[in-house]
Amino acid sequence: xxxxxxxxxxxxxxxxRNPRNFRELPHATKRVxxxxxxxxxxxxxxxxxxxxxxxxxxxxxxxxxxxxxSASVMxxxxxxxxxxxxxxxFEVFHKLVTGEPGSLDAAELGRLAAFSGVSEFPARVKxxxxxxxxxxxxxxxxxxxxxxx
Amino acid sequence: MSTLAVSTAYDVxxxxxxxxxxxxxxxxxxxxxxxxxxxxxxxxxxxxxxxxYYAEENxxxxxxxxxxxxxxxxxxxxxxxxxxxxxNARDEKEIVFTRGTTEGINLVAxxxxxxxxxxxxxxxxxAIEHHSNIVPWQLLCDEKNARLRVAPVNDAGEIIxxxxxxxxxxxxxxxxxxxxxxxxxxxSPVKRMTALARANGSLVLIDGAQGVPHLTxxxxxxxxxxxxxxxxxxxxxxxxxxxxGREAILDAMPPYQGGGDMxxxxxxxxxxxxxxxxKFEAGTPDIxxxxxxxxxxxYVRSIGLDNISAHEHDLLLYATEKxxxxxxxxxIGRAAEKASVISFTLxxxxxxxxxxxxxxxxxxxxxxxxxxxxxxMRFKVPATxxxxxxxxxxxxxxxxxxxxxxxxxxVFRG
Lengths: 149, 414
What we know:
The complex is a heterodimer of chains A (about 150) and B (about 425).
Chain A: H1 2-7, H2 10-17, E1 30-36, E2 41-50, E3 53-62, H3 65-78, H4 83-98, H5 106-109, H6 125-139, E4 146-147
Chain B: H1 2-9, H2 12-17, E1 25-26, E2 29-30, E3 32-33, H3 44-57, H4 67-87, E4 95-98, H5 101-116, E5 122-126, H6 135-144, E6 147-151, H7 161-167, E7 172-178, H8 190-199, E8 203-207, H9 219-222, E9 226-230, E10 241-245, H10 247-252, E11 263-266, E12 271-273, H11 287-303, H12 305-323, E13 329-332, E14 341-346, H13 351-360, E15 363-364, E16 366-368, H14 373-378, E17 384-388, H15 395-413
Helix pairs in contact in B: 1-12, 3-11, 4-11, 5-6, 12-15, 13-15
């Protein structure tokens, strides 16, 4: 049960039950889909960019608790941030969930720290990073469906 | 009480001892393997025969005049005879070794289909098909400007046979149907469907990937034209499968792949193809796989498919009853005739999360769309959890599944 509680931390369960920014964005400047064909997780990330600032962000779609809560926490974390800050967060998050060695700054992690248990479940890394990969592609200007397969 | 009588005589404890992998612990828990529709575990007899083949008999077949080549060829051809008997085919010529069900279906779609399908013709499948019995026909229909028709299922997951019969038209050249659904467990009335198709003048291919492990298959009684299955789903090795084909039809079909072993003579001007079944076995075959498959079929026969069916049916009823008591659990597929496969969803918990939590309890199930996305869409679910039982599973393992699901609910609602 310990490992499971590490994976399914309260933050994750809460964001899964009540995902934040879970809606379409009517004035989105970008809209990118993310899809994991293995498990069928499917999300759309909506972005409203103002220069290099993420003015607003939202998502819709379906998937497991890890992917949905990750999308929810991601949207809360990057809203109002500059593109380079959001990309840096993705880097930090990726290191966290893949268990890449090296110390991560707790302050920098913030709410993302709730996903620390994912590194013990290699099969779930793709769930945790799906929305982030989708955001990354949106920020890189790619509009096609991204997959984590 | 007949089920009970069979279960008493059925010594599942002894059977479990034949499967070394079942002795292991997973994440500190006893392994409860309920993913048999994906692949089955292998009895010691199959493992031993693979080792023995490579330790004592290995050589290429149908080529050498030397001792080992003769031994290997005899063992490979004896395996074909075992398969012929298992399916009650008329002749060894009708048994083509393939890599698995997928290759068997592709062989028919490619060889028979390209030669015989014309623009405007139709291929009829059903809503319960696995992607491997959809995509090869789509590719063929695209190439030929032919049309793929799909017989629907009812809410229980049963093929609506009246609708199926209505879809049989003079344009229907071939029908491709699952013996049993990998995603829902539905057993199709293949004999009746085959009779309807043949009366219509259509050929019939049965995807037997989920049929062979659970049901007695008699291709003469079924009267189908093709029957494809995989070795690894019936306690044999991966990488080997069988395509049964009616001799006259196979004989008229062009080769599927070119290469060694499928020819009688080759010049740069003209090649004469080998006789059946070798015409369809280009290149060095999976010799050890064929021998391993035959050993698995002998093993299954030694227990008896009727006994296996009865045991699995008991598990299906028991597990269904227990699962129905889990709050928020919905079983997808309630066909009257079912193989021991149970697909389910749990309120507010995604199947992927169920799979992870069960795995922590040592319980292995499949989660996802089960390579049957159109069927998932029909039931308006993106994915399900699927527990599938084999000849070595027990009621205690069904209990472990149910306990794991209660733990899942606890994690998510606690």
